[in-house]
Design brief:
rod-shaped, mainly alpha, DNA binding, WH-like_DNA-bd_sf, Transposase_8, Transposase-like protein, Arc Repressor Mutant, subunit A, single chain, coiled coil
Length: 100
Amino acid sequence: MVFDHEAGHPSQWAAIGAIAPKIGCTPETLRSWVRQTERDAGRREGTTTTERERIKALERENRELKQANEILRKASAYFAQAERDGQAPCATARNDRVYR
């Protein structure tokens, strides 16, 4: 919408200022949407929406893997301590059989 009406205004900001109240948002909000659209279209430098989503997914995966590693580290320390103390925290696999 901004791109369609940009020619009728002295600047892009003027077009944004005229359109924003008509669609019920602030000019700054609309400006950020326009900038992101320009990035996604390759008309402006910066991180695209797709790249941003990929980064977010990778950060989430990294966080989950760190949590899993911490759980494994604690479990390893627990079992190592139990072995040093001469206690068997659980049955060994070779003596454990499940009969159904």
